[in-house]
Design goal:
The protein is α/β, with parallel strands linked by helices. The protein has 18 helices and 15 strands. It folds into 2 domains: 180 residues, Tandem AAA-ATPase domain (Rossmann fold, 3-Layer(aba) Sandwich), CATH 3.40.50.10810; 186 residues, Rossmann fold.
Amino acid sequence: MIRNEIEIMDHQPKAIQFMLAHNYAICADEQGLGKTLEAIAVQQASDLTCLVICPATLKLNWKDEYEKFTDETSVTVGLKPSKINIVNYENIYKCTELFMKADMIIIDEAHYLIHLDAQRTTYAHRMIRKYLPERLLLLTGTPIRNRVTDFYSLLVLCSYSPIKNNGRLITDKFKTQEAFNKHFANEYQMKVKVTSKTGTFYKTVKKYSGIRNEEELKLFMKHKLIRRLASKVLTLPPLIFKPVQVSYKHDEKLDKAYQAHVKGESFDITAKASSAKNVASFTADYVRDIIKSGEGPVIVFSDHIAPLDVIEKKLNKKFKVAVITGRTKVEVRHAYVKAFQANELDAILCSVGAASTGITLTASRNMVLNDEPWDASHMSQLLKRFHRIGQTRSCVVHKMFGSSVAKKISMNLAEKQSDINKVIQGDKNASIKS
């Protein structure tokens, strides 16, 4: 059981009750509201053998949380059978025995399984459908990453429940991803540039955007999903956005590259924008000034590694700096976060892909975005690294705008988020009634 001295926040019992009442469920509480504790509480209350699947960078976090919240002694990171096994997505293909023995499966950052044509998604669906664990918990602060169509895979996973206590099954009406897409989103066609050994050509592909029939979609989500927003259930300090303009001249080539990206002909536009006109060098100077003013430590994010290399090189001369990217080993990453939280660092530089989830950086009240991520969901995840439970000071997000394209990317993100918010609106989509 959860230790008596552990403080359960006022909003957490409702999620725990919801997941206990619905055997296959999605906990989509916003980042920072304590989904890990909620899931562990469900596992402990059920007292079931459990397989936890999470990104590699979060395996040690899960073990730490079990040690902090419970007296559970049989928790194993890896494939050796245990009451609680914690494995990363890359190892799920080796987990047939663990899937077979698990009475409960927790999938953290479940938006990793939104693409039905991806190998790991196909495998996860097959294992769950075959072995039918008593309970399945899908944890994600961003159940829809970019488009409403992202939700289909998670709803299908919930449809496998052998105990039908989670509402209408999406597969009863929509047998395929395409049928779901056509009903709940707007279809359009786009020409995509393809380069092969035989030459370059364009092919027409179907794309989906926006949302249709949103009230019907909410009915399918009812009894499967619970989501609360931090702004509604927590009293958090203010979150302030500060645009920072970097001097630049209009870059016609960059603008053309952006248009190509929108058409699906180029996929490196954010990398170009992040480094345009020495943005990274300016960011390093800007972070230096924040530290010198006594407002450190500082969090810096970029969607790309190259700008972080520039920033690190400039800051390392006078300050204690750590860098977390996909190249950083899990154990080292874990140590960096602990050092940052202990105020032993002046700045931590993070790539979005490696550090947008699963870490707490509340020692800082200043986050500097050298560039915004193209993926709409990542933006909210970044903010929850420091604007979450445990933060007592107002938080400032400093957005670097080093090109006209950077502003267009920001506007595009806002439009995507608007569509997502039409469906994901907190408790309106959740119910614990049978």
